[in-house]
Write a structure and sequence with these properties.
By secondary structure, this protein is mainly beta. The strands form five sheets. Strands 2, 3, 4, 5, 7, 8, 11, 13, 15, 17, 19, 21, 23 and 26 form a 14-stranded mixed β-sheet that branches. Strands 1, 27, 28, 30, 32, 34, 36, 38, 40, 42, 44, 47 and 48 form a 13-stranded mixed β-sheet that branches. Strands 29-31-33-35-37-39-41-43-45-46 form a ten-stranded mixed β-sheet. The protein has three domains: 43-238, Pectate Lyase C-like; 262-319, no CATH class; 352-596, Pectate Lyase C-like. A hairpin with a 2-residue loop joins strand 24 (296-300) and strand 25 (303-304). The protein contains two helices and 48 strands. The model is unreliable at 1-21 and 588-599 (pLDDT under 50).
């Protein structure tokens, strides 16, 4: 994954950011390790110290493509829980760790009172790795609460780390008495991300969320902060995108010292604090921000910039650039929420192994898996890794294809691996695989949701709505009339990364790697990129970064390059017979450039 160059973009605010989702359960499986059962038998009663038990389970499952499952209960701990680069069998663990609670409100990690009392020597409840490289892949924490209790001024609730894909979803981090150093810490190491943080609540602490380090980007959606004593969210070096932040604080909601995008957010100060958003010299974009109680909505480089409040319709920092003389304004494409589907009773699931699939991946399981798909079940569960030699057709009653973070078709004997065809379900979900090597083909007008997975190629043959959350791929192509909404999209290849051929593409948090055109929009298509950055590791001369042919594009974007070969052309735009380009240092305050095209 590494010049330092930057490309410098409505829904109504969502009043209820967080909602408790149904309890999560899985069928009996060796891929799902229940912490409450032997050999661990964690008590979860709020009085027994479960630290040693949980630590042992963590070391046992590191890197094993298994889910460590916590039923409802209060798991008392007295020292930091540490993820490891090697598991207890001394095998390397390059990520692939998943902690899943039964429900956010009732699955609680509780720190003993006065266990971390020293504010000058912070300690974390859980440290999730980061080992000097950006190869700690596909890590997840879902549906739990981290409670630092009382008298723990030196406590950090959670230090999370993941690369390429990874997410924290439906997690609360709370302090009973308001004390604590940081609630949710993504700045404890560099190279943290790309990742998605969705449905996170942080209550109390000096700092609610900390971001830092120059790479690899972090994307936030539906975040609730309250009761911080220093700052709600601090960004010191990272490239981040935020949608749907609700902050109730009498300190700044955001301190942005580096590249930041924030949209559709509500910032409230009950006691009339000075400033809602503090911005340094870095590129910054805000849209549809409502403030209440603050004296000033936004201060940049220590001075009010005209956005005194109470609301910010749209504002960016950094001189804009575009090939043609058009207003610099974001497209404000309509945003739709990612659909959800009910979590069904696991007794009704089709488990592919029960149909003869081989979870070790030693033999072809295509026919067995197809039988599971065609069995009439609506959820099909993949608890292992599987070799397939022909495409699996998702059809019939199936609405969810669910894995445990393991691979499909590792040697790429089938291209594609999954074909989504017509069927009874209006929405089809494919989630939690790493990787799907032969790729995914969408050959239906149904809505498709791809979540928490890696797929080497994504091709759409029909123009159904597509929702993307937390995926990595190397080639994406969309059709005329198709609508695509993406949160935390990571595309890594050398050549054209995304082709939008006449569709509408909205992205919150786009991270890329290597050289080549990052987005080609054509045929009257519309694309809006709200952060984050290109990690230009090879062949920047393969650009232009953005290519726009008789189409409309807005991008607020960043570049990081340590190889000495950054992009030589940022934008190439064609309108009819006219073609213009933007190169570094042209048309704007280099290295900050905005591609704000309008047909």
């Amino acid at each position: 994954m590494r010049s330092l160059c930057s490309l410098v973009l409505t829904m109504l605010f969502i009043p209820q950011l967080l909602a408790e989702i149904p309890a999560i359960a899985f069928p009996p499986s060796s891929a799902v390790v229940d912490i409450s059962k032997p050999p661990y038998s964690a008590k979860g009663n709020g009085t027994t110290d479960d630290t040693a038990t949980i630590q042992k389970a963590l070391l046992d499952v590191m890197g094993s493509h298994k889910i460590l499952y916590f039923p409802n209960g209060t798991y008392l701990i007295s020292k930091s829980l540490m993820w490891s680069k090697k598991n207890s069998q001394n095998n390397d663990a390059w990520g692939f760790n998943f902690i899943q609670g039964q429900s956010t409100a009732k699955t609680i990690f509780r720190l003993k009172d006065k266990a971390f009392p020293d504010a000058n020597a912070p300690q974390t409840m859980m440290w999730c790795g980061g080992f000097g490289s950006a190869d700690w892949f596909h890590n997840y924490i879902h549906n739990v609460t981290f409670d630092v209790g009382n008298g723990n001024a030196g406590a950090v609730g959670l230090q999370f780390y993941s690369n390429n894909t990874g997410a924290v979803r439906d997690v609360d981090v709370v302090s009973q008495d308001g004390q604590g150093f940081i609630g949710f810490d993504l700045g404890h190491r560099d190279m943290n991300g790309p990742m998605l943080v969705k449905n996170l609540r942080v209550q109390g602490f000096e700092t609610g969320i900390r971001c830092a380090g120059s790479v690899n980007s972090q994307t936030f959606e539906r975040i609730r902060l309250s009761g911080q004593t220093k700052v709600g969210l601090a960004n010191f070096g990272q490239s981040i995108s935020i949608r749907g932040l609700e902050s109730v604080n009498d300190v700044p909601a955001i301190d942005a010292k580096s590249f930041t995008v924030i949209i559709d957010s509500k910032l409230t100060s009950p006691k009339g604090a000075s400033t809602a958003i503090v911005v340094g010299k870095a590129p910054f974009f805000a849209r549809n921000i409502t403030t209440t109680g603050y004296q000033t909505a936004l201060v940049s480089e220590g001075k009010p910039n005209g956005e005194t409040g109470p609301n910010i319709v749209e504002w960016h920092q950094g001189m804009a650039s575009n090939p043609f003389d058009v207003p610099v304004k974001s497209l404000n494409l309509p945003i739709r929420e990612t659909p959800e589907t009910p979590w069904e009773n696991p007794k009704s699931w089709a488990i592919v192994d029960k149909f003869g699939a081989d979870p070790t991946g030693n033999k072809d399981s295509a026919d067995a898996i197809q039988k599971a798909i065609d069995s009439g079940a609506t959820t099909v569960f993949f608890p292992g890794a599987y070799t397939i030699k022909k495409p699996l057709k998702i059809r019939g009653k199936v609405r969810r294809i669910l894995g445990v973070g393991n691979w499909i078709d590792y040697t790429s004997q089938s291209k594609p691996d999954f074909i989504v065809e017509d069927g009874e379900a209006k929405v089809v979900f494919i989630e939690h695989f790493a990787p799907i090597v032969g790729g995914i083909e969408i050959n239906t007008s149904r809505t498709v949701v791809l979540r928490s997975l890696e797929t080497r190629k994504l091709t759409c043959k029909k123009a159904g709505d597509l929702f993307i959350e937390d995926i990595v791929t190397d080639d994406m192509r969309f059709n005329p009339g198709q609508q695509v909404w993406a949160r935390q999209l990571n595309v890594e290849n050398e050549g054209t990364h995304i082709t939008n051929d006449g569709g509408k593409l909205w992205v919150l948090g786009y991270k890329t790697e290597r050289g080549g055109t990052l987005l080609h929009t054509k045929n009257s298509g519309s694309s809006e990129i709200l952060g984050n950055f290109s990690y230009t590791t090879t062949a920047g001369k393969l650009g232009p970064m953005f290519r726009t042919d008789d189409a409309t594009v807005f991008a607020f974007f960043n570049e990081v390059c340590y190889s000495g070969d950054p992009f030589q052309v940022f934008v190439q735009e064609k309108r009819g017979t006219q073609s213009k380009t933007i190169k570094p240092g042209e048309g704007g305050l280099s290295p900050y450039v905005t591609n704000a095209s309008g047909k």
